[in-house]
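FAQ: What does the model actually see?

It sees only this:
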Amino acid sequence: MARWLVAAVALFSGAARLAADAGPLPASDGGLKADFLGRIHALQTPAAPLDLYSDEKQADLAGIARQDTLFDPASPGFGPAGGPVLALFIGPDCPDCDAALAELKQISQDLGIRVTLLETTDPENAATMAALGLDVLPSYVMRDRMIRGHMPAFVLERYIIEAAD
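And it is asked to produce this:
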């Protein structure tokens, strides 16, 4: 099987070189050379990447848009009221939540963002978290994405900077 594949690749690349080196064809070729070269070019041009998560992304964005309290500067939290807002769902007895909170306090100072804290012990916050389809603590919500589970600070910083651009 491997010999067959090598032979096919050699034949294909040889045909492409011959077509490119063939020079002008008579006017009666009916556009065959252009058609052949176009087909070879199409084979060499990578297809657009397939986004397997497009539907999930759209559902996340729609869910975020329905939750107007997530980014309310009057909600409990920290950071400047005028900066971009990130919402953080946290719960009791959650070591990852404690780490996320400490990291976000530093990020808030460095990047000037507002962090809304949503304690899941509050039934309203728990309902908001469930409505968003989040089931892991901590969970982060930005206007353009949701992150389930603890995320390293350097990744969060990159996402925040991307969102601000």
